[in-house]
Amino acid sequence: MNPGFATVHQAAAGQLPLSLINNPCLDHWVSMAENGCVDVYTGKVELGQGIVTALAQIVADELLVDIAAVRMQPANTRYSPNESVTSGSLSIQHSGLSLRAVCAQIRLLFIQAVARKFHLDASMVTVINGEFVSNSRSYGTYWQIADGVDLHVAVTGFDAGTASGRRDYLGTSLRPIGLELKVSGQYPFIHDLTLPGMTHGRVLRPPSPYAVLGDLDLSEWQNSPGVVSIVRDGSLIGVIAEQEHIAERVVGQIARKAVWTEHDSLPLQSDLALWLRSGKCETTVLSRPSVHAKTPVAGAAGTFTGDFLKSFTKHASIGPSCAYAQAIADTGLKIWSHSQGIHNLKADLCLAFDRDAALVEIQHVPGSGCYGHNGADDVAYDAAWLCLHAHERPVRVQWSRSDELNWSPVGPAMSVRIEADVDENGGVLDWRHTVWGPGHSLRPGRAGTPTLLGSWYKESPHPALSAINAPLESGGGADRNLVPLYDFPCSALVCHRVVDCSLRTSALRALGAFGNVFAIESLIDDIAIGSGRDPLQYRLDNLRDERARSVLNAVAKLAAWHERHDGGRAGDVGMGIGFARYKTEGAYCAVVAKVKLTHEIRVEKLFIAVDVGEVINPDGVVQQIEGGAIQATSWALYEEAHFDRKGFIDGDWESYPIIKFSQVPDIEVEIMPGAGVAPVGAGEPSLGPTAAAIGNAVRDALGVRVRILPITPEAVIRAVDAQAAGIDNNVEFLRAM
């Protein structure tokens, strides 16, 4: 038995993962197929992150079968366990540990059944690639004795005594399931799905969020060739056609005739930071009582302050959202969706269309890359609404690029202020961190009314809701990673949730951790440099957590940190470091960025050290860490959602650029040993530290702190001008943007 694995689960014996508490029956998760395969059901969905591959590895090692026998079934609301949403870097903790416990108990039940049937000592029965063996004699396979084992029983718990201890697949870099199909262009993405009798739908979007549609005569298009139906409900208009280009053309023609009533509801973009701080807010005060200080601190040698701004950011999926829906026998609905949370989506669709849950089924089909609450749920609503007028024919709806960029929920803007009282050596005597911004959660299935976009524009609309922040114990929102991991006192940790912000915000990868880690790590660097301390050593001096110290030392060695200024400083090259433990309880990640400044800011290389505990698939971890770092580089340098007084105005790649392949930095990742430590997710921990490392590298190169994201050449110029005017460190900075 793997001793490290035993250590982990002895400490948590009897404690079940959340997904298993909500779905306790073994047969909700695993069944033995007659053809010698193990069918595995999970509520977590494949989004390109390789989760089904990692889960298959867990199942194979725990059941002691060949991984070729494991079939990961696509998530479906009719037969898959309800695991809420695939998000938050939680799939391994929730689904992986659930399957580990389920498979351990299933293996034990089969062993006991074999022992009873053949009068054997159960402790002498082993499993070798799915076959039960005792004293070198075979007593059958899982599939041969499956009829004698009832899996419709609740899981009883999990500890090291029931673990297989085999590591044939765990810790191995297996090729992701479906990779060959992706390379050959045969992977079944939702956009390529074809259903018998399929029609195509398009929905007309208003010019701005609060626009109201006036009178409009639709009769001239009702009988157009290829048009199946045109539907209007309030400010919602949809076209169903035999072919996609017809639906697209007719919606464009209707748009040119439509007359909307609009009004201003947003500030000038240049006033964003002050607008966030002056709006109506709900306030949450966090505490860290073990290191609590009084404020102000008497005898402090000085105070470091910083005001930071993260702009609104978009999902910017390469493939626009897509869905299919079909009305069945007047009351039933079947939907095909790439949603991150098909059970939650089903709950909202039942509310929106007043359908009994037993009559609605959602099948997950993989879509384009998804990093939070994008348009997948909204386009599913569009398809479901239109299919009710398609005479029981399936309707395919694909959003346009403009729909995707301007109507998906966006990642909230954040305004952050941090103040730190320090002693004469730069030691922090008190730390105060305040964040202002809209909520980070407006996902379906969590409110009394639907959060689906189309339902807000009907004649009798459901109320448009403001995003919330989940409780910190559930991951938080704007307050995610607001509590620093460093060992210094904090007297004020405050989160102001801006309500009624007029823009639809929701979860985008890493949530508030991205802005908070950028701000924290920026000020940590400022304190270290202002006190004549090395930024790496300053961090190490303020951390007792050995895993934190290990990733920092590892990334420093990887990047040759202590040699970075040998031969003097190059004015156009800088190196910076960033660190965080995701959600203060997840993966540890440290990043060193090397940037070069010419006519633009280029990240030449990222060095990353990460500790995710027990590693299921090393290549999968590296890919997720690299993907997060690349996206963080794009956010840190290029991405900013623009708006006028009415709404967003970025409808194409020219107005909302993302990182290009030619701008992707070289990345080197080191995974820390994880034996004996429970596994955690790798999808999101690299984002905040990467942005912070880039910001600190820019400061290293220029000697100027840029506190606005993205760090564009224009932002650098403003920071230089502000520093020259002596207004870079306080609220005046907000007025100088």
Automatic annotation (TrEMBL):
<feature type="domain" description="Aldehyde oxidase/xanthine dehydrogenase a/b hammerhead">
    <location>
        <begin position="184"/>
        <end position="264"/>
    </location>
</feature>
<dbReference type="InterPro" id="IPR052516">
    <property type="entry name" value="N-heterocyclic_Hydroxylase"/>
</dbReference>
<dbReference type="InterPro" id="IPR046867">
    <property type="entry name" value="AldOxase/xan_DH_MoCoBD2"/>
</dbReference>
<dbReference type="InterPro" id="IPR000674">
    <property type="entry name" value="Ald_Oxase/Xan_DH_a/b"/>
</dbReference>
<dbReference type="Pfam" id="PF02738">
    <property type="entry name" value="MoCoBD_1"/>
</dbReference>
<dbReference type="Pfam" id="PF20256">
    <property type="entry name" value="MoCoBD_2"/>
</dbReference>
<dbReference type="InterPro" id="IPR012368">
    <property type="entry name" value="OxRdtase_Mopterin-bd_su_IorB"/>
</dbReference>
<dbReference type="GO" id="GO:0016491">
    <property type="term" value="F:oxidoreductase activity"/>
</dbReference>
<protein>
    <submittedName>
        <fullName>CO/xanthine dehydrogenase Mo-binding subunit</fullName>
    </submittedName>
</protein>
<dbReference type="InterPro" id="IPR008274">
    <property type="entry name" value="AldOxase/xan_DH_MoCoBD1"/>
</dbReference>
<dbReference type="InterPro" id="IPR037165">
    <property type="entry name" value="AldOxase/xan_DH_Mopterin-bd_sf"/>
</dbReference>
